[in-house]
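Example record

The entry below shows one chain as it appears in the dataset: sequence first, then structure tokens.
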Amino acid sequence: GDATVFFTRLMPIVRTFISLPAGIARMNFRKFLAYTFLGSLPWCFALAYAGYKLGQHWRDVGSTLHDYDILVGVVLVALFALFVYRHVQGSRDSQEAPSAEETTSG
């Protein structure tokens, strides 16, 4: 749903690509902008604050975060698979549902 945009803006890597599924789903543009802003704000604030506090030791963080690359990749693939599954399931449901003409003429 729409809240996916908000929550994925908080996730590294995934936040970069969430615009594509939101566009494919034809999400309301104003909601998209609001959720994008609100979801990005805490992340940007946290990064700026962390950078300020870490100072010259910022390179040490990169080696620690590298350990989580696979986890982030798995989450990204799972979210994409869920999106595709729901899209395919929704298409099947709409094709199987009888139209108003079929129910009244039968």
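Notes for this example: The radius of gyration is 20 Å. The chain has a mean pLDDT of 80.
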